[in-house]
Amino acid sequence: MARIARVEVLMVDLKPKVKRVDAIQSFVSQETPIVRITDADGVTGTGYSYTIGTGGHSVIELLKRTLVPAIIGREANEIEKLWRELLFLTHATTTGAITSIALAAIDTALWDLQARKLGLPLHILAGGAQDAIPLYTTEGGWLHLEEAALIEDALRAKADGFGGCKLKVGRPIHEDVRRISAVREAVGPGFEIFTDANQRFNVDEAIRRARAYEPLDIGWFEEPLTAEDISGHTRLSEHTSIPIAIGESLYSAMHFREYLERHACSIIQVDVGRVGGITPWLKVAHMAEAFNIAVCPHFLMELHVGLCAATPNGRWVEYIPQLDQLTTERMTIRDGKAIPSSKPGLGIAWDFDAIERMTVEGSHSIHL
């Protein structure tokens, strides 16, 4: 047992290496809050979360003013207790994106700290269910890209041993069908093609789209409707054989429970940076297991590889590199699969010199 003695809060702003456009937005920036927690024994755990372009400074202020002061002097290994107390401390802003993103930065740091003290990698500490997780790539499937680029990226992924690729949809329906068909013809059977609408459609349009996509043998139809429309997802699921994937825009384990109970999805894409950290992520993953549903998390591949390997129903890791500028080592890939790190902690080799250089002015704060 050791109490929390010091907490450092900062943020870096990462620009995507490639242009990223989907059906509702252009991904131009990744604000990345980082929290470093040091206990009385001098051991430090590092956690993080993210926003897509907006809200990062709000997250930092919530951390500085409310959450971090509440954990100074507390027992660092009481992770569940601290998470719940912070959740209720912020009940006026819960459930919501800003609060969940801030909670995730603290919670992941506490898990990193505990794993380091125990000398265990995250995937073993959290369950140790698998040794490797299949990868699919999203980086070459953005909506602004034309067919030739989509085909080239998919063939490259297949050659590298990846099990699938994701294509963004949201163009006129005949264009979406043509683009998916072109990739399917190029890669052949046995290679998954996932589609992602980024909440673009209403339910009637989504049903129409699903019927058009069905002959193309796609692996799932992701975020077809706004995340709040559970009844719409239920109706859509009843009208298509395509698995419906949801979760990146849900910020509470209870919301996942409602989807599962109402048979409104077939794939859970719980995002550790948006659901509030590793603590609730594991709850959602095990809840999905009870419904015999796979977990295929959104984004944050460097962290999700360990969590997917910890759980028996972790099915896919999404390949979108985003921490290369902040780390000294990359996620290990072998035969097209993501391999969880064997080193103690989250398995992320942070480059703290690079983080210091890239820290956004005004975001840095230390609490003793």
TrEMBL record:
GO biological process, one term: carbohydrate catabolic process
Gene3D superfamilies documented for this protein: Enolase-like C-terminal domain, Enolase-like, N-terminal domain
Annotated Mandelate racemase/muconate lactonizing enzyme C-terminal domain residues: 147-243
Cofactor(s) it depends on: Mg(2+)
GO molecular function: hydro-lyase activity; magnesium ion binding
Matching Pfam families: MR_MLE_C, MR_MLE_N
InterPro entries from the UniProt entry: Enolase-like_C_sf, Enolase-like_N, Enolase_C-like, Mandelate_racemase_C, Mandelate_racemase_N_dom, RHMD-like
Source organism, top-level taxon: Bacteria
Record flagged with keyword Magnesium: yes
Keywords: Magnesium, Metal-binding
Protein name: Mandelate racemase
The species this protein was found in: Devosia insulae DS-56
